[in-house]
Fold:
Amino acid sequence: MVDKESLNTKVFISCIESINKFYVLRANEMKTIVQIQEQINYNWSRTGFLELENGADEDNSEEEKEVEGVDIKPGDLVVAKFQDKLFYRAKVLSVFVELDTSLTEVDMAEVLYIDYGNIDMVPITSTRPLPSSLLALPPLAIQCSLFDCLALGEDTTTEFRGLVNKHCLLLEMMGRKEEVLEVDLIREMGDNMGYSSVRDVLVLCGKAVFYSSPSTIIPNVEERDYKQLPSLLAGSVHTVMLSHLHQLSHQQLPQLSVQLLSDQDKLALQLPSLMDQMGEVYGVKRSEELWGLGRCWPGMVCAVRDSRDKMWYRGQVVKVVKGRMVRVKYVDFGNTELVPAHRMRRLFKDFMELPAMATRVSMGVKVEGPEVMAMLKEGIDLVDLDMKIVEE
Structure:
């Protein structure tokens, strides 16, 4: 079972079969890998189990006799020699007999190297019992699949390797099927490009497609949502600033969204700096190619560019209206807008630390007609207001 520490963390790719089957290692466990290898190979070299590069044939034959009778079966944990002549932890997948070049029967084992993810066929004489001190340590390689992603050709895997090999990546879990994590991988790009979704790059460069239709309504598989401000208690008084006056409906009390100014942490004062950072990240060239959204669904968090001031805001999808047209709520201001998906971007984790700043409230008086609402907005816009909570 993969624990929660495996999720949304930095990883390295250890083995790739395809975009739907690859293995990752957590960056904070690389030292553990080294320690395991030192313990295994030091122990075997001390006990004479490792072949000496210039060892005598007589010694080697005795060694083979010593291990020829080793009884292993599928499911056993062992150490198995790899092509580099070193031993690694492995799980036996199957055992079989193979004829060598002299037509002699050789007992073979198919093994999975559990700390890397690769599979190999090795002679049973190249396996040893796993030291008891390493039996309790779970496999370090985590099997993953790119979420909702279908390769379009044989070169997709080659492109994927080029994007991820030898890079430290941020793994974001988006689903799970049994023990396989469905993930996206986020890579830091060069030339001041910031961060990019590997899934999105593969799709946008024509090497893969998403399984689901962009108009399909699915749950928020990322399970990401904005932090919320504490509830406002009846009788409490707050200093606020109007962020949006909602459209007045017939027989409805006026509703407005406000930003709290009197909270202890002064969170609203952090919003301009956050928006400046978003502008720097999403304002680069090839922004859509790097962080554009292949598809959207209700509840999905995102960055969205306003068509009027051209600034980037935090948003959340309310509804996929038709095709690539999406209704988005600006969570820090309270208003909604119908926007084309090309104005939306993937929202990075760092931009979600600040809670959604807009609080929607209702005034306890009726306002007749849009003219009065316009006058009301003019009177309270851009000024600090004292707001008393009458009823929750």
